Prior knowledge:
The chain has 19 helices and no strands. By secondary structure, the protein is an all-alpha fold. The chain is globular. Belongs to the major facilitator superfamily. FHS transporter (TC 2.A.1.7) family.
Amino acid sequence: MPGIITAPPSGSLPENPKANYTFPLILVTSLFFMWGFAYGLLDSLNKHFQDVLNVTRLRSGLLQAAYFGGYFLMALPAGMIMKRFGYKRGIILGLILYAIGAFLFYPSANMRSFDSFLLSLFILACGLCCLETAANPYVTVLGKRETSEFRLNLSQCFNGVGSFLGPFLAAHVFFGGDKTENANELSSVQYTYLIIGVVVLLIAFLFYKAHLPEINEEEQLSEEAHQHSRPLFRNPHFVWGVIAQFFYVAAQVGVAAFFINYATESWAGTSSEKAATLLGVSLVLFTIGRFVGTALMRVIRPHKLLAAYALINILLCIAVIKAAGSLGVYSLMLIFFFESIMFPTIFALGVKDLGRHTKPGGSFQVMAIAGGAVSPLFMGWIADRQSTAVSFIVPLICFVIVLYYGVSGYKIRKAG
């Protein structure tokens, strides 16, 4: 995110034949799972709060606004904290904020206050922002520069694992059991997040005890600084990368946020519990897509794969808008597969060859996650006035921007 951290200009730690970064990579990759799991629960909360707290679809979209607004507002401070105190302390701070936000779900449920849930989610998201600000760039430098896109996509696969486990848990805990009882209580949310808070604190303790190699970015950047004298925003591939990331995250969040609404409204006989299960299956497809896409990048250039997947998702969005019943729902589910590689690929392409600007460049990439705060509000507004199906025009437009980035926007222009 904006601010002040990310990968060194060379894109990797100094080569050391004796260095073994396997354990640090495994430990940091666990963070991808943790924020994936938090996000996987988020989309099920939309429908659950609509049912239990009687909020509109537009108002429920404020959950995504609070979540991704936390990313936007915390991005620069997170970067500054990590520059001053290092990745390890920044990660521990993120985990503590994550736990505090999760624990605050308990009193929020007691008060039955939607606004309190928004505040709890905002604090939790600030913690996740710290984790993403550290983990995404850190993974790109734990190895060779040439394989940074591959390595980041591989770690992001575990983000997908967490994302699909969230909806499966929600289908059983939030929407399962006695429907009459669940319609009026929030204890399932309350205790789920209490357990999450405890687990996150345990992970924070592991990081406190572990040794993580720090990156002396100033040293690494000094060798290439003369090659990258252009101001950051005069690198078109970076600027378009931030734009593409904003619209990609907007599409991803919008598609997931209204998945349950779309499934229950367009496919007769589909309950919220079944729709949540289908959302879980969709996120399994997302995870499979990450592994498949990571393998394909061995033989297909990342920008070409990005463009192809974006085009396919444009066509699938048209099917979601026009079709009904199982065809529309299955088309919606396939979108998850083809959006799987977009975030890490855009991230890696956007910060490539920025030299001394890599730190703030990566920070702005994470800041672009704020796109997820905007799309659910637009989609909720359209859904309340037209239909949930029509609201999918928003992610369709977003994927058009991603398509442009994969075709042309990614290109690195040399200084003239």
